[in-house]
Every structure is written in structure tokens, then in C-alpha cells.
């Protein structure tokens, strides 16, 4: 954990950090990552989450170069004795670090999940409201996550054991 002030939870996932995905079936079937090794696969990522918010913001780097912010729309995180739980809700937003325009990701997948009944009307409305909130923050230059742009994991940190 990078920080936890009770309002913002900052978690760093180094490559090969162990993950769990639950064993029960979701409304739309098994977790899509359950077929992969249960470790973080890509380079390290800093995930920023706030209780009650329907999204997390991930700082993405390539080596030492800041690439941008990946906004993952998800169920609000729930703290557990082992950490926290959430559930991805398909829609994502990429905010390039160079100031170029943001881009939506997985819109077709989100709309298909809505169309097929994979989301309740309340869940759909919650995702759309969270997306509108994030776009408003970005367009006003008020992204609370920007204070984390230069954060780096201490070199002494090791990947946790399973």
C-alpha cells in the first residue's frame, strides 16, 4: 500500500503481485481473468481509489516515463479484512499524460452488457454518472489524482508473497 488516509487508498501493484478473483460465477459467467495466472501481469501500476466512488484512477508508466491515467469504472471499493473488493464495469477512459484528448475504451462492451441485461438499470446509471463526473473533472483540469503524477514506488519494496 502506498498510502491510506481514510479518503484515498493508493495501492501499488508491482509486476507479479498476487491477485484473487473470487470463485463464484458472476451474472455473466466466471471472472474473465480467472484463466490467467493470478498475478499482476504488466509493469507496476499505482491504483487510486476513494470509498463510494464508482471508479479508480491508475497511473501508468513505461519505465520512468509517465504515460497517463487509466480510469477504470467499477463498483465502489469495499474494504475487507484482506484488503478491498470491487468489480469492473467494462467502461474505461484513457487520459494521456501529454495533455492530448482523452479517449473512451470498451464502450461497445459496456453497451452490450447493458443491452443483454448484464447490468441493472441502477448499475448502468451509476456507471454513466461516474463517467460524467470524471469527464467534468478532466475538462475543468480538476483531477484530484494529479497530485500522484510523480509518485514512484520505493526501490526497497518487494513483491508480496502469496
What does this structure look like?
It is a single chain. The chain has 162 residues and is α+β, with helices and mostly antiparallel strands. The protein has one domain (3-148): Beta Barrel (FomD barrel-like fold), CATH 2.40.380. 17% of the residues lie in helices and 30% in strands. The chain has 2 helices and 9 strands, in the order βββββββββαα. It has helices at 107-115, 121-139, and strands at residues 3-4, 9-13, 45-49, 55-62, 65-74, 78-80, 83-85, 88-96, 103-105. It has a 7-stranded antiparallel sheet with strand order 1-2-3-4-5-8-9. It is globular. The chain starts with a strand and ends in a 23-residue tail after the last helix. The model has no long low-confidence stretch (mean pLDDT 89).
